[in-house]
Every structure is written in structure tokens, then in C-alpha cells.
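Weekly modeling sync, notes
Attendees: S.R. (lead), two postdocs, one rotation student

Agenda item 3: backlog of single-chain predictions. S.R. asked that every request posted to the team notebook include the full sequence so nobody has to chase files. The rotation student volunteered to paste the first one in as an example of the format we agreed on. Action items at the bottom.

Example entry:
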Amino acid sequence: MSQLTTSGANVDDDVVLLTVPADGGYLGVLRTATATLAARLQFALDEIEDLRIAVDEACAMLLVVATPEAELECRFAVTDDALLVEVTVPTVRGARLPAESSFAWKVLTALTTFANAEVADGRATIRLITRRVGH
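Predicted structure, as returned to the notebook:
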């Protein structure tokens, strides 16, 4: 059994992987998966909506730097009280994500417990962790 620890979230084998074309028309699939998994964790309705918006915003940030014909890889990891979402896309040369002081990052940090990003080896990744309120 593998374990991943990111900012205090222990993630075991309860992982869902989704790959969709890096096209805004497919983001609904990721929003729906986010809502379904958050509901499974018994998140409140407003928490579920916040998560959907955060995933949508993270994906929108990645679409801007994605290579032509790229695919968004989305990894959802479920713990007892949190949902970790990691979205990755191959990037164009010299790609940069918005600064942490940007409006997009303010949205992500307001809607999640933890958010970070990295661009390395031709790929950009945004990680979001949301814990259920009261945990």
C-alpha cells in the first residue's frame, strides 16, 4: 500500500485518475467528479461548490500554458476527512503560472485548505487540498 503525504493529508489507495483533453469543453467532467467525491466525504453543499470552483480555476490556469493537443491529468485522492486534487498538463516552453498574488491564486487559497503549484520538466501541476469543516 503506497502512501502520499502532502501538507498533512495522508492518502492511501483511494485514488481516482481522470484524463481529459486540455480543452475548456471537458472541464465539466472534472467538476462533476470533484462534486461526486466531495459528496462521498459528506462535504456540505457550499464546500462542494467551493471545490468545484477551485478545480475549475486551477484547470483554467493550466489550459493557458498547455501544449497543443495536450491532456489534463487529474488525480483525486480521498482520505477520511479531505480531498486532494492534483491537476497536471504538459506545458509550452517557458510556461509560467500566475503569481501567488494574482486573483486566480487568491480564489484558490480562499476556496481550499491548501494550494500550491509547480512548473518543472515541461509540466505544470496544481495541487489542492480541502478538508471537511470541523476536521
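Discussion: group reviewed the output briefly. Helices lie at 27-40, 45-65, 103-111.
Action items: rotation student to repeat for the remaining queue; S.R. to check formatting next week.
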